[in-house]
Amino acid sequence: MKYLSKRFNGKYGFFKFLILLILIILGPVPASYSILIMGVDKSVLYIMTAAYVLVAFLFFLIFYRRFKFYGGFFENLRVVILALLGIYLLSFLIEFAFGENITNPENQETIESMLRMNFSPALIAHIVLLGPLVEEYTFREYLPGVFRNIFKRRDQDIKDFLALIMANILFSLAHMPTDIYSFLVYFSIGFVLVLVRFFTNNLKLSALVHIFWNLLSSLLLYFAI
Questions:
Q1: Sign, CA torsion 166/80/116/223
Q2: How distant, in Å, are the alpha carbons of 97, 104, 199 from that of 184?
Q3: N or C: where does the chain have the smaller number of CB atoms within 10 Å of the terminal CB?
Q4: Which of these, 194, 199, 214, 211, lies nearest to 75 by C-alpha position?
Q5: Which one is predicted more confidently, 195 or 102?
């Protein structure tokens, strides 16, 4: 009987990859449109926001249905809080290591400039809901499930972890870093999510951490500008 990892035993076909690729590339487009095109009717914004929420809900039902929460409410809450603190700590250490010779990642600058131009609930719905759900499935499930087949004759836990790290490199590059600092910022965020995914074997939990992190970051950006 062929060994199946406790983590990655789903189906990782091309059609699923195509859906993920379309959502990653085209997902931000309507939200960006709602910002860049001035004078968009509010009813259109509400329809776009509702569409993002609906797509996120359907994506969650379809792609996350086989994942289950383990442990009690407070145990999962503790993981989420520790993960968020871990992201903040790594971000602080990276910023401290680079000193004053740092600039905000271009991806963050783009979001800040969009929020300065015009507030859009559609953009927030993408950043906080659809984006994290799609990214977690792509970089913490689909790609690791594909990459783990590269490593032969290794302990299954080691194969899983190496596959997650490889996918996390792509996760960092997907956010278009312009220098080593911005790359490490996204890699550190992804690394904490990798640890959550690896040790809890729960994609829903890593997605929840990702959602809360993006929500907190969006709130900080909004009130800072």
A1: negative
A2: 11, 12, 22
A3: N
A4: 199
A5: 195
